[in-house]
Inverse folding.
């Protein structure tokens, strides 16, 4: 069993805070999109049209090496009476292209985003959320996480603006910090699925214990250090 000194545990805590700072930076970019809405949108314009343009611009402004892989907006239709409406942009081959989703509830391919955590959590809590990791099966097999933010309305959020973050690039930005920590540990989401770990057998997307052994998870996890604000944690493994 790995024994961590106080100095090492402090280093792990700093790593958790750095992960939170990476997510915070994406949230800040989404907040800027929302904050510009009133000043850039005509009074008689549709808010959906604004977010179509604003999220495309957000993704188009990414820099080389940026972890941002996608961005978009989904309107709330359950509480508003409006039709489902969603736009999603992805970064491919050095440019921004639209990833089409069916917004027709009568279609067999209807993408009901309202049932998904990246949409539902910010709508319910009024706070930013991070979801995933997911495998991006459209154009690449890379893992992404989705950072999402509610867009305020008069009485309830009018929808959710969100961005996909490439997990491999996120990990690259944290690699030096992770390499400086000895022992067995993993960065996991709220369901204990791995983002990155120092254990070769625990790759991105895997649970830290098999589903059948979930009841015994605390025998594997020695300690959890929360990633402030987002439900993730760094777990120290036995």
């Amino acid at each position: 069993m790995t024994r961590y000194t106080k100095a090492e545990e402090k280093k792990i805590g700093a790593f958790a805070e750095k992960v939170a700072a990476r997510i915070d930076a994406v949230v800040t970019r989404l907040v800027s999109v929302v904050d510009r809405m009133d000043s850039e949108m005509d009074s008689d314009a549709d808010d959906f049209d604004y977010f179509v343009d604003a999220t495309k611009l957000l993704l188009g402004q990414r820099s080389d090496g940026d972890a941002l892989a996608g961005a978009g907006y989904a309107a709330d239709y359950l509480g508003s009476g409006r039709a489902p409406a969603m736009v999603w942009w992805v970064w491919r081959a050095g440019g921004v292209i639209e990833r089409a989703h069916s917004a027709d509830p009568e279609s067999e391919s209807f993408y009901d985003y309202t049932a998904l955590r990246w949409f539902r959590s910010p709508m319910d809590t009024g706070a930013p959320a991070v979801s995933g990791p997911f495998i991006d099966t459209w154009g690449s097999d890379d893992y992404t996480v989705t950072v999402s933010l509610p867009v305020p309305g008069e009485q309830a959020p009018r929808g959710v603006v969100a961005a996909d973050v490439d997990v491999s690039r996120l990990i690259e930005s944290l690699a030096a910090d992770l390499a400086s920590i000895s022992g067995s540990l993993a960065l996991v989401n709220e369901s204990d699925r791995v983002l990155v770990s120092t254990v070769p057998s625990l790759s991105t997307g895997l649970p830290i214990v098999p589903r059948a052994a979930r009841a015994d998870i605390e025998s594997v996890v020695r300690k959890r250090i929360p990633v402030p604000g987002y439900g993730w944690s760094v777990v120290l493994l036995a």
